[in-house]
Prior knowledge:
B: 309 residues, 11 helices, C: alpha/beta, Rossmann fold, 2 domains, 7-stranded mixed beta sheet
Amino acid sequence: MTDTLQIRPEAAAAPKPAIPLPTAAARAVTAAGAVLTAASAFLSWTYSSQFPGDLTLSGYPGGLQWITFTGGLLTLVYLLVGYGTPGLRGLAPGGAEGTTVILAVGAAASTWFTLIAISVELGGLANLTTGGWVAGIASLLAVVGALGLPRDGQHPQGHRLGALLYPGKRPELAPAKRLAPAFEVGIVLLTLAAALGVFAYGVDTSYAELFAGFLILAGFAAWALNRSGDFARLGEIMQRHRVLATVGAFVAAGLFPFTQTSSNAEANANLGVSILIFAATALGLNIVVGLAGLLDLGYVAFLGVGAYTAALVSGAAGTAFNVQFPFWAAALLGAVVSGIFGVLLGAPTLRVRGDYLAIVTLGFGEIFRIVVQNLDGTSGPNVTNGAIGISNVPDLNIFGFDFGSAHSFGPFDIGRFANYFELMLIFTAIIVLVFARSANSRIGRAWVAIREDETAATAMGINGFRFKLLAFALGATLAGLAGTVFVHVNYSIVPDTFQFAGPTPPNSAFLLAAVVIGGMGTVSGPLVGASLFFLLQAKLSFLHDYQLLLFGITLILFMRFRPEGIIPNRRRQLEFHESQTEDGQEGPTPELRTAEA
Amino acid sequence: MHELPQNLVNGLLLGATYGLIAVGYTIVYGIVQLINFAHGEIFMTGAFGALSVYLGLGSGTSMWIAIPLMLLGAIVTSTVIAVLTERLAYRPLRNAPRLAPLITAIGVSITLQQLVWGFYPSAKSPRVFPSLPGGPFHVGGVLIQSADIFVVVAAVLSTLFLAYFVRTTRTGRAMQATAQDPDTAKLMGINTDRVIVIAFALGAGFAGIAGVAWGLRYGEIKFDMGFLTGLYAFTAAVLGGIGNIYGAMLGGLVLGLVQNLTAIYIADIPGMSQFSSQSWSSVWAFVILILVLMVRPQGLLGERVADRA
Amino acid sequence: MRNRSLLVLTAIAATGTLTLTACGSRASNSGSGGSSSGSTTVTIGVDAPLTGSLSALGIGIQNSVDLAIKTANKNNEVPGVTFKIEALDDKAAPQQGSLNATQLVGDSSVIGVVGPLNSGVALTMQKTFNNANLVEVSPANTNPALTQGPNWQTGTKARPFASYFRTATTDAIQGPFAAQFAFSTLGKKKVFLVDNKDAYGVGLVGTFKDEFTKLGGTVAGQDHVTSGASDFSSTVNAIKSSGADFVYFGGEYPDAAPLTKQLKAGGANIPVIGGDGNYDPTYIKLAGTAANGDFATSVGAPVESLPSAQTFVTNYKAGGYSQAYGAYGGYSYDSAWAIIEAVKAVVSANNGKLPSNPRQAVEKAMSNVNFSGVTGTVSFDQYGDATNKQLTVYGVKNGVWTTIKTGTFSG
């Protein structure tokens, strides 16, 4: 993320390691710790098979032990990179020592999370066997060793996050040599495969503890790979092979149902398609919020308009219009009707003040639900069947392919939800394409100009109202498009789904959070944010009573400390940190700012 | 016959409560151009603050003693929460792009609601609020509850106080100056940070009073009562002309009337009978908001001002 | 040099992918409970809101199913079969219901499901269960369309899903029962109808209205309110000017209590009659003295009058559950027990052993289930609805619900 940010030279002096050890000793301790940590996964950790995943077996890791194993292995690899092991040297262009620290802490955190979870759930530390203690102590040993390694990062002083910055910032990377094209392609494919593997694993985690452990390690690993410079290098390679990477990403995603062979395959495919619908909708919202800077707080209502439209022309029994459109027509109609609603709502609002839109859309989201509830024949004309909703929406059948039943492709059985997953993937691709094409066009640049300074943009001859309306209506259209699939996946549609802040995605507040947390104005941000957010709320269901509270606090904290999200759009990042750069705390040099602007 | 006078009175009473809340939106928006989405929740916490005071007093206390203390409790609770929110959540974002404080406001709103839901004793279902003794009074065929009198008195006194405060006091004039041009106000030696905090506090105080009024009128309060009510109150503020204190009151009254009258009299329009029920009243309020934005975006009492965005 | 580093990278990535895949497969193996030596273990799934604002009802459902399962295991109700529970939280959200349904279907040990609470959730689950022939018994869904198809009101009843059953009584019975009570017992002929626009309330008012007008009563007026609203003054005025004898309210007590309170304060001293959504102590707590004279119908005989119900209450208390069994505890117990009875029938028809794929057999056996449960005799008609049509009217007297009349609906 900080490729372009230069740290002021006086801040860059590397401090001493936290634990004064000779480097060789530190390396040895870390290595011993990491190896032992990985090895401990093969021991039994507890006496009782009550703890999910059954950690009582020796000789074969299970459940959370795999997480510890992976953590130990990763620590070891980056330690070896730092040691200059032949064949690995290119793996940490940004410095291996800082990376090792992060990984060692990550491995220890996930291991200790497991140990604590065992003790809490089974009642007391007595439930840990020697294996468990070995794992805990070995992982701490690795941390101790890693803290003795020389520090290779850059350390801005007086930063408010203090200890979090022990590993330091990644130094500026030297420009990388290009690799042979075949190797670069190989790297792209491998990366995609790895990403698919990690995602599929996360989706398949069958109990909350495993998911939490996975998330801890994944979080630290992502930080580590960012620190090591591997992400930056991968990003460069991906950038060079953009078409391959994009197409490959969709192919990899399309392969997801084929990775699911267990009896949970359909459940995971259902989770997958739900995530996709949520993510695609969030991407549509990102046009409105991220590109044009308009706050839409009732976005899920547009999903609802599309869904209801598609349901009404699906031929479902008991609906007002007894017609059955082919799906392409229903999808188009849903998108168009939703777009019309967008124009109807945006036209009076956007003419006035940008932030009136927020409250009008908030109202619309609420009103939509109430209107739909009332159009039931007694308190309004019968259109939507009121609170009872439209049920038994038939499965799709496109070119003779029945989405409702399972199909066999060679050794793979692809069930109903997997069918819809593939369909939704195509829709997501369309939405990504629309987003990318418009963001990089004259229209997209106009949006950004309006977002940053509407007065200046108007002075430059941009019709602010027209472009804002376009963004708003386009966002509504895309949500409507996603809604047409949504209704078929769920067989039915009821008004209660469309709340501002409900218990499950998609709802307007969660959609906004996916965009904000993921990264405003980027393609991958909302996709990552939505997946993360969806999995978090689906897997950690024990947190549900506090889910909305945590959600509210997260929004506040993100806006305060990282408004650009996990995956920042570079221009957006500068915009959000403008005040800091003016104060000279951190940020790009003046030359860079002019270059960016 | 639909008892028109009673409906008018009911509409105005509902509107007065909206007006009390709308004042908070209008003051804050007038000064920092921020739609404080959390304002509805400030209103809600005020009501819960008053309830806490009442529960603390014990059941034997006379309502004549309890009411002033409850009002105080509501105002203190609302004000403290509003000032803390301003200090911790909004102030650090003063110079951030406009989207940032708006999203933060949404976050604050959800957080406050969930805090009350999760941590106020048995707030997961509605909580019974004490009622005023005496009444109801028959005035020319109209039934008036004692809580209704409270609402009228509170609304009138609050508006008068606010008008006096803004017009004549030093702080009030500083607020006007900041609203007109914050940079120049700063150059003139006005501590704009302080003015903004006072704006938040004033708005919160009125929201607290509105919370008590609401509880007394309906006999129960709940954690999510601020969400829709806040939405209506903002609509009222826009309707009256945002930034104008009298406008907020007027907008509230108009909106209350609209909600109450549409629920009954739309049925008299041929072909519209199905659209006249309590469940449509919020839809009509929304339609009014859209119409106002189309026809008179500056609101009933607002002046056309350039958008300073 | 570079190439070598790539080689190592490839090896690591491959190892990583392999370990991750292996990991996935093991987790799922341990997830599904297979048959162990001696007795077969089957799972009864529960889908209900276990968190959020409806969690009290949902946890009541979960605990009651748990009690049924424990009782069955203790009595060795089905020789050679041990039951266990798997409860999933649907958060009262249709989306989550759909996810839970696929998860329960995926677990091959699940033989039947009790739930859900909300009919909106049921809509997304029904078809998934039906495709897998997995029996679903709802203790709480009252919308007739769930079992009799969307056109049930026009007389063309068609069962959409063979795997869906319910122990709850539908609106089609409760509404008319209340109409008969109001018209014949109370002698009130002019009604004002109010519903809160949710599926339950709308359904109840619709069936009440049909029966009441058929009996000869008149509808003086009708209003609809938004669930969660606070100000019902326009509704109160409409009721007052309509001159109705009483109000029939379709909805739940959080909306009914403020309505009755504002109605009485507004000077209209007429009773409010509601369904089992009103039959809750909180109704009286919220409405205060205004609740006196109001009525609510509820399904089944009063708990005091049924020995089986009293056993349930005693056992539930002895079970040490921290939450009350709530409004749907009895139905949930009976739902689970119906599944257990069906499994018993399947096992005894198959020489005392569970067939290898028992779901379809259990679905068939459900229609012949007949036993005396907590809520009365439990059996299902050709649509999967409970045949038990016993209802009770309760009235508020001096701040408590008291039994007014118990009867069987025939109509």
